[in-house]
Amino acid sequence: MPAFASPPNPQAYNEQVWSLVRQIPFGKVATYGQIAKMLPPPNGVEIESYAAFAPRWVGGAMAACPDDVPWQRVINSQGKISERAGAEKQRQLLESEGIIFDTKDKVDLKKYGWSGRNDEVIPQQPSLF
User: Which residues, 6+ apart, have CB-to-CB distance to 59 below 8 Å?
Assistant: First the structure.
């Protein structure tokens, strides 16, 4: 399996990540791996390689995201905030959205995890026929 330090076209991949992360609703979180699984592998990257490297690529995209991306809503697979500069700010932002951390600094992914779809019910317009 070839090693991929970054996607073949990092900017295009990052744009896909950011577009997806912008869809995570207020008060919900997603994991790096979950975001990666929602995106197709870039051309030329086999599924096995993609599965191995993509969560790190998502992390790289989040580290470089524009201001309009709710970066705080992406956490690690353990339901924790990854240790790095800005971790305390991330926790503050999540708590301000009503997300609660347990005594082990974890978020309950069953309660706060985003399913990857819009859970809001969209009213149907009446049929004209």
Answer: 32, 82
Q: Are 75 and 97 in contact (CB under 8 A)?
A: no
Boundaries of every domain in the chain: 10-112
| C-alpha Rg value of the chain to the nearest Å | 16
pTM over 0.85: yes
3-state helix, strand, coil in the chain (%, to 5): 40, 5, 55
Six token digits for residue 90? 């991330």
- Model confidence pLDDT, tens digit, residues 60-110: 999 999 999 999 999 999 999 999 888 999 999 999 999 999 999 999 999
Residue type, 21: V
Cα–Cα dist 104/79, whole Å: 10
CA distance 17 to 3: 20
The owner of tokens 């991306």 is 69
Tokens of 116: 């990857």
CATH 1.10.10.10 for domain 10-112, yes or no, is: yes
